[in-house]
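Project standup — Tuesday

K.O.: blocked on the structure for the chain from last sprint. Re-posting the sequence here as requested.
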Amino acid sequence: MATKSLQALGHNLADPDNQIAFFDQDETATSFYEKIKTYGFTPLKPDQVEIFQVNMGKMCNQVCAHCHVDAGPDRKEIMTWETMEQCLDVIKSIPSIETVDLTGGAPEMNPNFRPFVEELSKLGKQVIVRCNLTIILANPKYHDLPAFYKKHNCQVVSSLPFYKESRTDSQRGSGVFKKSIKALQMLNEVGYGKPETGLELHLVYNPAGAFLPPPQEQLKQDYKEILAADYGIVFNELFSITNIPISRFLNYLVKSGNYVEYMTKLANAFNPSTVNGLMCRNTLSIGWDGYVYDCDFNQMLDKKINCSGQHLTDLPIDELTSREIYVNQHCYGCTAGAGSSCGGEIT
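H.V.: unblocked you, prediction finished:
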């Protein structure tokens, strides 16, 4: 199957609605929609909204090889304070929302990042900050971020592709590993990662190539042992996340000739027990411009939520749990093996 060309498969990478089929182990070509239909999951519907994920902008101080947001220093898309106020209004109107997950780019580069966190803290919401670690050292104005996170009891989730320098730098850029280690030590100094403080520090592992991540629990133990022994670093959990075939990672797959093989691998590893735990079932994803999506990946494909209103200003709250979630072939990434979500393995 891996030798077949994209053209032979009838695939158009520019068309996110093209439901290209990949061959399963039984040699049956199946689109993702047809796959979940055989298990009775169509139409795929959400549960109540518990997590409100906000992309605060695509500006970032790094350019990572696996980034599905295609973030970088040259990106100008940034969420305005007006849109943040609209976020706050929607959060107040949905009582089931317990967690607000701030992402980017580097969310801290948004000039209104701190006042937004302060307002969320006043609402009593658990704030997750997806910090790339190196932002803490990027400029003196960011050096106090660990103390700011602590003040507002933010949960810090940070990408560290591997516990070895060469592999991390190859994925995220030269010198990133050493800066990440220093930032983790700064977070530890204010209490993050230490069980007795309640300040949660979680790391994220992404595969460096076209393969599925290894079992999360074993990987966590390896990270804990090596980071503690070599650098004195402690953390709470490790989230193992499958690379989703969109944006920058998709470009890598196509250029390296691994696209069909990788997609076939994901399709063959489909696990129906992951579907009930998919993050699109309990999460709303908000773009930097205020448009609403089922998940962060659909956001990057510009596939907006399937409701009568698709922006924060006209979002129909009463339709959120009755809508159909948009799915396509990239969804195989979240349902392969033990599953993948922003919180790591699903099963």
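K.O.: great, moving the ticket to review. The first strand starts at residue 22 and ends at 23. The chain has one domain: 22-335.
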